[in-house]
Sequence to fold (271 residues):
Amino acid sequence: MITCADCRQSAPRTGRVQRYCPACSERRDLARKRLWAAAHPLDGARRQRQLENARRRKVLVCDAGRAASADLARSIAWRDPGEPELLWLARIAVPFTYATSKNHIYSLRRTGHLALRREAIAVRSAIATEIRAALADRRVAHNKLWLDILVQKPDHRGDAVNVVDLVCDAVKDATGLDDRWYSLRGLDWEIVKSDPQLFVGIGQDAADDVQVCSHCGQLKALGEFTRCRRAHLGVGRACRACLREGRRLAKRRKAGQQPPDDVAIWSPSLN
Fold:
């Protein structure tokens, strides 16, 4: 428990440097944001006029551009499997919307706090549903997961790389595999005026469950770790080779011997 520096009321501690209760923290955060907004006014009318002028200038070429875009648009098989060679690959497609961009995921509440937008939640759910259907009964190993992403944008605004966060969150919902295991094999974008899509491909190049050793940082099979019933995968975080080398060094120190000069560069893979 802490004592709030403003209202002097007791409040549960949620952080090491917490000074205020939730109500006072929200009030101070809102006051700070109001001060910033007062110092950075937005000219909404001018921005609206610019948008209207831009629409009028583009109306004469919209039909021609839309037709050319449709001819050049690629399909869901926009990329053949390359390096690394994958054991399996599943591809899905959902309609593209700028709600997938990390710049549009959150909205500001009246209280001044951020909240996840409903559009972003809907897109994330749609991607997760399509991935579950594409995987069907396929097993996703606890191993590196490769992602291919193609973003079809209706215009040249927004960054394709900004959709990676939401796509990874959706893949995590669908597969249950933590996104720390994800690797981006390919990211591409193109402008498609009619019916732009977001294509996502996921695959794996290995079928064995592995664990990252917290000591040597190597990916190793679960059989190379000691058992631990409390752990998520049923094994510990240090591999047997690291534990064995640690015991060897401990015995040498206990015997009064100095560790060898190559201890600092020792690697379990070379043992």
Summary: The chain has six helices and twelve strands. The mean pLDDT is 82. The radius of gyration is 26 Å.
